[in-house]
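lol ok so funny story. i was supposed to be doing the assay writeup but got distracted and ended up predicting the structure for this chain instead. priorities right. anyway since i did it might as well share w the group, maybe its usefull for someone
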Amino acid sequence: MNSIERVQAAIDLRKPDRVPVDLHNFQPAAAAMGVSMAEVFQDGELLAEAMLRAWQQFGHDMILLENGTACNAQACGVEVIYRDDAAPAAHVPVIKSLEEVDKLQVPDPETAFPMCEIIKATRILAREIGDRVWICGRADQGPMDLASQLIGMDTLLLEIALGEKPELIHRLLDFAREVATRYAFALIDAGAHSTSIGEPIAGPDVISPRHYREYAFPHEKRMVDDLKKKGIILHNHICGNTIPIIEDFIATGAQVLEIDHKTDLRKAKEAGRGKTCFLGPINTTLMAEGTPEQVEEACREAIEIMAPDSGFILGPGCALGPETPPENIQALVESARKYGVYH
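and the output, tada:
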């Protein structure tokens, strides 16, 4: 099997020849370019070159393409800070209250910065290596996370806790869903094989399972459904321990669930067997600070638990830090080949 066939088999819950491996490595790839990360993350050609060089070095099966967690927010008018040694960060919200939600306008991904640059990078990678490696064009943040950037995380969480304006909260989430969905379609049109959203604010480490079900879940599910109608595969990423919401997480219908090291793998596998494909869950701190031997052992254990009956892609549980040693990245990739063979 080639990488595309391998990833497709895992997502379809068919057995590939071995466990596919993903690298959520946009930061180390940018750091290796020899120019500031701020420059790379604002230039689609530089970003594509960074990801291409990393693929040539490590030979992973899946590229997760993005420039951080503030792309959609910036396209909507949020003030974003670009840093020389890390991913950009949302800084100043674009609205101050829920009552301002109708002022927001859904951006056109082909012209809105930096969406247009990520689309450019997607087109370049699709043209250069799209027949040899799976490209997941990340549609940046999902409904809950983007909403928190548009109005400010503290303001959104306070409004959810007070529970006095559920209708306005849902209107904001609906807008955020539209932004991410439109961007997702554009990335697929540019040649990505799948797309992805990040929803860390939606997880149990931040909000209660009840509030996840009430606010985040219906908008995530609608996004999945809208993309599925066009045959598009969506990954849903929630940081932290997702076990308290694992049944709901699966019920969004996302074909790939990205989980991190805090999630109990055995419980996740039991809940998701035959229903969805998991991606992750290697600890990014271990990737940055551990030894290759420690990385290999963590990968071996994850494969042992998650690989049976397919439905598993090995990778970091979140974005790798820019300082992650190449030898640890190589250890992750090699572990899939060493321990992930299906018989």
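DSSP finds 15 helices and ten strands in the chain. Residues 3-339 form a domain with the TIM Barrel fold (CATH 3.20.20.210).
back to the writeup now i swear
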